[in-house]
Amino acid sequence: MQNYSIVSLLRHAINGHATWAPAWRSPPLRESYDVVVIGAGGHGLATAYYLAKEFGITDVAVLERGWLGGGNVARNTVTVRSNYMRDASIPFYVKSVALYEGLSDELNFNLMHSKRTMIDVVQTFPKMRELRRRQLTMDIYGSTYERISTEEVRRRIPALTGGGPGARLPVIGGMVHTDAGVNRHDAVAWAYARGADARGVELHQQTPVTKLLRGGDGAVKGVETPRGIVRARKVAVAVSGHTTTLTETVGLRLPLRTMNLTAFVSEPVKPLVDVVVNCPDSGFYFSQSDKGEMVIGGAPDMGQSFRRDVKQHVFEDTVTAMLSLFPSFKKLKLLRQWGGHVDITPDASPIMDETDVPGLFVTAGWWGGYKAIPAGGLTLAHLIAKGEPHPLMAPFTLNRFRHLDYVMESGTTTAR
Amino acid sequence: MMLIPCPFCGHRNESEFAYGGPVKPDRPDPHAASDEDWVDWLTTVPNPLGPVEERWWHVKGCGTWLTIWRDTRTHCVVEGSGDAG
């Protein structure tokens, strides 16, 4: 792997940057691999990277329908945090946040990770009680959460001028999560892709999987693509909203519904807000990107959806809520808007498990899966390589539904 | 904007409705059903790339419940049964 540094930058600058090697190869697609990962998004690429790095499994192909890093890893709001509710969830996300913080060095790629703190702006007492309850559990696992007064919230977020005593929902306080941060989503996808490629993993873009294939023994034996059949005894599905579309090709039903979650970006303005602001009672959150744009997320659409766009009334609801707390944003122009389809389980926690089809693994149900990319990739690679779950992922089995042993999570966007 | 056909009010904006979830088969008797069937009924719904049958409540309108078939790829209502009640 070509090392990126100030020295290499200067050396290539002398040559007019004409001599950089591609960040990953484009090898021909072979007929057989040890492991096939479907989906070159965050989780798929991270899984391939850790399979090679941690477990020495390098005969791996990552098959991507479109282009690398073009799915939900490009459609999220890049918030990395660990303020979850459950004993099962918090250590997993604490691990993921810790991995993110070391990832720029590990992957020799500047992820522009900015550990800038998240502040929850709380407007109702039930929400404050819920967040205080989260804090008690988070304290056990070393995740930071601290209550601050309304005055302190306003001091730290000067643009928060709405929600005064006369408002329908006055601000009653805040919670500060100093572990939270944002980083650059493209860099995360590209860095994992480059790191995986350097260890022998093959990345195949424009290679949609149309069907999973089972052998006579019932186990998975490969996948069908327009470029031909690719055989593998282990196949990992990391395709977000399309998980059931694929697993149904082998008759496997999963407790997942696909929904659309939207985000918008404003025109760039001068530095105004230096933390991630989450307003759970009003149903929106935002952060200011390094370019100066406000990156705004809202509530999911009602009903199942694969459409990946923005509904007008969801957009209006989110903007109306935001303007009630940040009236000065009224002058902002929005530049871009988009949706992403995410699948959700009945308890809002993810599924990482081998399915009833031996050799077929799924990582699904991610709702806020961006923050989970490093830990999700590491633990899924552990499961694929060793055949037993990593302790951090052990609660997120498919079996929990069989036993109705839910991990009901309130820390996700949808649970607002 | 998604327009939902209400049997009493005609096509109305989605923002007047509350989502009632996908249509499920009748609730099995948990004592008579196998564990597998019972868990399946509780946890798993169809998730089609295409038309899905679902319930909506015209809560900010006439208050009726209705059932439609909606395509999850386009949000087009492909069949409004218009069955009130």
Question: Any key phrases for this structure?
Answer:
heterodimer; A: 416 residues; alpha/beta; eight-stranded mixed sheet; 10 helices; globular; B: Folate-binding fold; four-stranded antiparallel sheet; two-stranded antiparallel sheet; 1 helix; 6 strands
* Outline type of chain A: globular
How many helices of chain B? The count is 1
Return the string of H and E elements of chain B: EEEHEEE
Give helix % range of chain A. 25-40%
Which structural class best describes the helix and strand composition of chain B?
Answer: mainly beta
Strand segment tally of chain A: 19
CATH architecture of the largest domain in chain A: 3-Layer(bba) Sandwich
- Number of distinct helices of chain A: 10
Largest beta-sheet characterization of chain A: 8 strands, mixed
CATH topology of the largest domain in chain A: FAD/NAD(P)-binding domain
* Envelope shape of chain B: elongated
In total, how many domains does the architecture of chain A comprise?
A: 2
Strand line-up of the largest beta sheet of chain B: 3-4-5-6
Mean pLDDT metric of chain A: 95
Number of domains of chain B: 1
Helix content of chain B: 10-25%
How many angstroms does the end-to-end distance of chain B come to?
25 Å
Biggest β-sheet of chain B, characterized? 4 strands, antiparallel
Oligomerization status of the protein chains: heterodimer
Uncertain residue segments of chain A: none
CATH superfamily of chain B: Folate-binding superfamily
